[in-house]
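During the no-cost extension, the postdoctoral fellow (Dr. R.K.) reprocessed legacy sequence entries with the updated structure-token encoder. One reprocessed record is reproduced below for audit purposes.
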Amino acid sequence: MDVIGWLGAATLLGAYALASAGRLAGTSAGFQVLNLLGSGGLAVNSGYHDAWPSAALNVVWMAVGFAALAHGRGRPPGGAP
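Re-encoded structure tokens follow.
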């Protein structure tokens, strides 16, 4: 379970670093997917360790990512659907 949590944390940090460096757009599908994977790993780890506030935060984080992808926000600006 700890490995899942560490991988989730690394994935979220990687997405943030890539977006901050301008190598990945914050509106891209790749950014959203990395956030979904990372927050999913942290949600599982947090729930396993009974850290419910962190688990809830990461479930909401996942919901935001799913909503962005579902509403077409996971693509480049001006890009085709």
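The chain has one domain: 2-70. The radius of gyration is 13 Å. The remaining legacy entries will be reprocessed before the final report is submitted.
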